Structures are given as C-alpha cells and as structure tokens.
Amino acid sequence: MAEKATYRDVEQMTFREASTELEQIVRALEGGDLELEDALDRYGRGVELLKSLRARLADAEQKVRVLLDSSQEVVAPDTTAAPSSAFLDD
Fold first, then answer.
1. By CB atoms within 10 Å of each CB, which of 44, 50, 57, 74 scores lowest?
2. Which domain covers residue 43, as residue numbers?
C-alpha cells in the first residue's frame, strides 16, 4: 500500500502554484493509472486546492468591484455647471 503523500499548506502557495498542482492532479486522475487509494488522496487534495482557489478568486473579484466603485465616484466630474463651447464666440 502506498504511503499518503505530504502536501504543502495550500495557504502558503501562490495562486499559480495551487492552480498548477490542481492541473497536475486532474491529469493524473484522468489518466486512470493511479491506485484507488492514491486517486482518493489526490482527489481530496484537488478539492482542497479548488476550494482555496475559488475563495481567492471571489476575494479578488470583490476587491476589483470596490476599486471600480470608488474610481467611478472620482472619475465622474460634475459638468452641469460648465459652459457649453457651442455658445462661445470665436
């Protein structure tokens, strides 16, 4: 029986590292050459990685929304008091 693999802490990994490991796990599982115990171990690791990646994406999306909302408040100047150039004499 194969020993259970030791994995890095997901929260210590960069998004890219976690994503790459997940891709490798998916390829290995799709290959169909793993023993059942190894496949189950890797599947569990894949679920852990996917959960972390989804949470990080949701956090990033929220930060982008906040930045967009705050930038629209700053960028949208009030032009209602500005004179129209169509009425200026040359």
1. 74
2. 11-68
Residues recorded for the chain: 90
Q: How many domains does the chain have?
A: 1
Whether residue 24 lies inside any domain: the answer is yes
Does a structural domain hold residue 46?
yes
Question: In this structure, what CATH number is given to the domain that contains residue 35?
Answer: 1.10.287
Residue 30: CB atoms within 10 A of its CB come to 8
Cα–Cα dist 22/38, whole Å = 15
pLDDT band for position 1 (cuts 50, 70, 90): very low
pLDDT tens digit sequence for 45-80: 999 999 999 999 999 999 999 998 887 765 556 666
Going by C-alpha positions, the residue among 74, 16, 22 that lies closest to residue 7 is 22
